[in-house]
């Protein structure tokens, strides 16, 4: 869980000033960067994972990740998950939710 109770606004304002752009432009750049990273890492799950991440970057609030696998997952699965991150998302039934 990530809670942004205002520190994100300060961080975005400082980063935007350092880049010489508005805060809205910097937030947009951050969302585009997140979309690129999530899309490259989790191509099969990007449509499900990206909206809550983008909402968090845009509005702040709380981003919660939950894992609810149907059955216990052996520790040795970590090796496969490292090679196929989308497999981890599917088998662990990872979900992201955003609350403003």
| Shape assignment | elongated
* Category by helix and strand content: alpha+beta
What's the total number of strands?
A: 3
Kindly estimate the percentage of residues that lie in beta strands according to DSSP: 15-25%
Number of alpha- plus pi-helical segments: 5
> Number of folding domains?
1
Strand order of the largest sheet: 1-2-3
Question: How would a textbook summarize the main sheet?
Answer: 3 strands, antiparallel
Helix and strand element order: EHHHEHHE
Global mean pLDDT: 93
Distance between the termini: 13 Å
Describe this structure in words.
The chain is of the alpha+beta class. It has one domain (2-99). The protein is built from 5 helices and 3 strands, in the order E-H-H-H-E-H-H-E. It has helices spanning 7-19, 23-41, 46-59, 77-83, 85-91, and strands at 2-4, 61-67, 94-99. The protein has a 3-stranded antiparallel β-sheet with strand order 1-2-3. The longest helix has 19 residues, at 23-41. The radius of gyration is 16 Å and the shape is elongated. It starts with a strand and ends with a strand.
Question: How are the secondary structure elements laid out?
Answer:
Elements: E1 2-4, H1 7-19, H2 23-41, H3 46-59, E2 61-67, H4 77-83, H5 85-91, E3 94-99
Antiparallel strand pairs: 1-2, 2-3
Helix pairs in contact: 1-2, 2-3, 4-5
